[in-house]
Structure formats: structure tokens, C-alpha cells
Amino acid sequence: MAINRRTELANNLAEVRSTIPDSVHLIVVTKTFPLSDAQLLHELGVTEFGENRDQEGREKAPLVPGKWHFQGQLQSNKLKSICSWADVIQTIDSVRYVELVSKAAAKDLEVFIQVSLDGEVHRGGALPGDLNQIADEILATSNLNLQGLMAVAPLGEEPDSAFERLALIHQSFVAKYPNAPYLSAGMSGDYLSAISHGATHIRVGSSILGSRS
Fold first, then answer.
1. Mean pLDDT along residues 135-154
2. pLDDT (tens digit, 9 = 90+) per residue, 99-134?
3. Which single residue of 3, 120, 161, 164 has CA 20 to 30 Å from 196?
4. Residue 110: φ, ψ to 5°
């Protein structure tokens, strides 16, 4: 007998929740999945959602209560729209985007600075040496609230070694910015490693929703 979608999501959600401490924020990433899945997840107690694309976030966020995180690469022509539905932007990676997001936001937003762990800035993420300048720029705005750092483990590298490096970057960042203590790292395949290296927020999609078509 086919298992119904609500039961499937409930089982997957329970399984993921059983592996993470209560103190860790679980952000369920609904990209490519329908609005109905996000609504079921809300009924099952999910309070934080993540989207990588403006169009999907714009469609789902107004209809599903919760805190919505934008975690895709920023594009200046989509900022006004992203700022209208997102509560959190996880991918600020330059002084330029601090200015553009602050200007586009009609409400206060929480923001994370994305740090590159492989030195490839064109793939998104600031170099560790640029974090302070970006953080200072965020603190100088009146409508952006700095939460901490975000990162993605580079493809082809063991997550443990990437997150170990991230933990050191995060440690020195928090020493300078104690009011921005959070660390968003880890996805379906590597969130346990991220948590073991200090992640406070994890962004999980396929472990809960199933594989993307």
C-alpha cells in the first residue's frame, strides 16, 4: 500500500530530529517541492523553511507561516522581491550586497555572511579576510541584523576537514562579533559533521522531502 505524503514527511522529519540536539535550528529546504509539502511540514511543526530561488519563496512564504530563509546566490534584480518574503538572508558575501539588500528591504532582516571555504569567490561566499569589513558594514545599517556566518562544504572535499576549517574561522569571528554567534552549515549529506564542528543552523532538504527530480 502506498504510504501517504504526510506520513512519509512525518517519518523522515522524526528521523532527522532524532539525530540533532534541540538547540540546533532545523531549516527545511523545500526547493523544487510543491507548496502542499511546505504546508504539511508546517502542520507537522516545522517553523523554519529555506528556499534557493526567489520565485519559489515568493509563492510559498505568504501561504506558509514560519521563518523563511533565502539561501541561494543573490542577484541584484531579484533583491526587492526576495526582501519582501524572506525573513533571513543567508548569502550576503560582499559590501556591495550589504548596501543593496539594506536599500531593498522594507522591513528588518536577519542576515548571515556566507564564507567561501575553497577560495572560489565566484561560486558565492566571501574570503575569510573580508568578513570583518562586511560585518562592520552590516552593523552600520539600521535594518539588517547580523546573525553570524554561513558556509557550504566544497564539492570533493571531506566535510569534516571543511567544517574543521570553518570552526576556526567562526571562532575568531565570534571573538570579534559576540552578538553574531550563529553558524549555518550542513545539509542532508553532512549536517552531523557540521553540528560536531559547531553549526547552530542546518539546512536539510532531501533527507526529509526525498530526492529531487
1. 97
2. 999 999 999 999 999 999 988 766 789 999 999 999
3. 120
4. -90, 140
Segments in the chain forming alpha helices (H): 5-17, 35-43, 54-60, 79-85, 95-104, 131-139, 159-176, 191-196, 206-209
Residues written for the chain: 213
Distance, CA of 88 to CA of 117 (rounded, Å)? 21
Of 134, 135, 116, nearest in space to 181 by CA: 135
Q: Quote the pLDDT of residue 113.
A: 98
pTM: 0.96
CA distance 66 to 61: 8
Residue closest to 98 by CA, chosen among 52, 140, 69, 151: 140
Please check whether residue 33 is in contact with residue 209, taking contact to mean a CB–CB distance below 8 angstroms: yes
In the block, cell 539588517 appears at 144
139 has which bridge partners? none
Q: Grid coordinates in use for 80?
A: 526587492
